[in-house]
């Protein structure tokens, strides 16, 4: 497979390394920094480097745009303008609404891997960075089913777990589980610095809880300022909700209401267990086969319906009929109950579906 990576930092470099080592792909790299390109070549992340987007994507079968959110949309547009008609183009941005709305093209599928590391740059890239990581995909009603399947298989080859989600839901969820924790980490270090000012000779500056809670404080502004601003409406809504919860626990503490404080703490423990358990995967694999018409958006419709219900597609394949008027979408789902749920959801869309 021929893959192009536009932006060869930590994420782009890891995509490139994984594609070369795990898929045997030929990877072409582009970056507006000649030094980054040279490091990518030295690391063996890319087979060759190109000085223009057009040259980098000229014969690609898949393109990954891996630059900060502020530059994503423009670079995706350049890639789509120069990529072949049968090439899938995706990105790795932490917010999705802007870039998805800007590119109504059957070849584009927005993406976001939930993976990263403490250090930036291709020198820290790893071929296994995406192993067992959720990789969100945001197909649209016009997304090519064939290209979506190609990307889905490619991400599986990198070790990731691709999951379909609509862009609006993605940004709302990420505001709560990723962007808000970064805000809290920044606030906590500022609060602690102010409290400990002048006392550092007598008090330990940090403890394990503080270090864990503030690990992401001060994350690179070149990346995170764009994320905060691009998702500002969803993030401010989450901040408002968090302020209300803080005010409620403050009131309980001020009143010395031990029962209320205990209930609040116990509820937090139960919520954490529930959230962690919902991420566990396992069980046997079940194959579903759905008969669908050959029209744009069918694969995206099914993937998004299952994604909204929390059903993960572990693999998929397309089998078009000889007359190309219809075909079969084969899906593999982990666990009997999720497979039964998926079967019911697909049937609810009006597509005949059978479990093998």
What does it look like?
- With 356 residues, this protein is α/β, with parallel strands linked by helices.
- Helix content is 49%, strand content 18%.
- The chain has 13 helices and 12 strands.
- The strands form 2 sheets. An 8-stranded mixed β-sheet has the order 3-2-1-4-5-6-7-8, sandwiched between helices. Strands 10-11-9-12 form a 4-stranded antiparallel β-sheet.
- A hairpin with a 5-residue loop joins strand 10 (313-320) and strand 11 (326-334).
Low-pLDDT residue spans:
none
**Bulk shape:** globular
Main sheet strand line-up? 3-2-1-4-5-6-7-8
The largest sheet, given as strand count, sense and whether it forms a barrel, is:
8 strands, mixed
Number of helices: 13
Order of helices and strands: EHEHEHEHEHEEHEHHHHHEHEEHE
Overall pLDDT level: 89
What's the β-strand tally? Answer: 12
Q: What would a concise description of this structure say?
A:
With 356 residues, the chain is an alpha/beta fold. It has helices at residues 10-23, 34-43, 53-57, 69-82, 97-102, 145-157, 167-196, 208-213, 221-230, 232-254, 258-277, 298-308, 336-348, and strands at 2-6, 26-30, 48-50, 62-65, 88-91, 108-113, 134-138, 161-164, 285-293, 313-320, 326-334, 353-355. Helix 1 links the parallel strand 1 (2-6) and strand 2.
């Amino acid at each position: 497979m021929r893959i192009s990576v536009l932006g060869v930092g930590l994420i782009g470099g890891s995509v490139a390394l994984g594609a070369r080592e795990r898929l045997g792909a030929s990877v072409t790299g582009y970056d507006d920094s000649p030094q980054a390109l040279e490091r990518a070549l030295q690391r063996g992340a890319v087979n060759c480097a190109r000085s223009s987007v057009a040259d980098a994507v000229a014969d690609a079968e898949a393109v990954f745009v891996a630059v900060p959110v502020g530059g994503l949309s423009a670079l995706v547009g350049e890639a789509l303008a120069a990529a072949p008609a049968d090439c899938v183009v995706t990105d790795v941005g932490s917010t999705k609404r802007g870039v998805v709305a800007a590119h109504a093209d059957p070849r584009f599928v927005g993406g976001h891997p939930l993976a990263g590391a403490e250090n930036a740059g291709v020198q820290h890239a790893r071929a296994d960075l995406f192993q067992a990581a959720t990789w969100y995909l945001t197909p649209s009603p016009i997304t090519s089913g064939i290209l979506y399947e190609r990307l889905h298989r490619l991400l599986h080859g990198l070790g990731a777990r691709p999951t379909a989600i609509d862009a609006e839901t993605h940004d709302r969820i990420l505001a709560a589980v990723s962007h808000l924790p970064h805000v809290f980490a920044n606030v906590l270090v500022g609060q602690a610095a102010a409290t400990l000012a002048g006392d550092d000779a007598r008090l330990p500056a940090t403890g394990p809880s503080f270090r864990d809670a503030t690990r992401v404080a001060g994350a690179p502004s070149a990346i995170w300022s764009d994320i905060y601003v691009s998702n500002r409406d969803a993030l401010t809504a989450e901040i408002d909700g968090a302020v209300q919860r803080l005010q409620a626990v403050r009131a309980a503490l001020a009143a010395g209401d031990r029962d209320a404080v205990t209930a609040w703490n116990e509820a937090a423990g139960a919520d954490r267990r529930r959230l962690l358990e919902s991420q566990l995967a396992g069980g046997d694999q079940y194959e579903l086969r759905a008969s669908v018409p050959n029209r744009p958006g069918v694969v995206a419709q099914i993937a998004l319906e299952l994604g909204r219900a929390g059903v993960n597609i572990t693999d998929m394949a397309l089998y078009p009929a000889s007359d190309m008027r219809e075909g079969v979408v084969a899906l593999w789902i982990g666990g009997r109950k999720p497979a039964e749920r998926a079967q019911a959801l697909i049937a609810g869309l009006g597509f005949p579906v059978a479990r093998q």
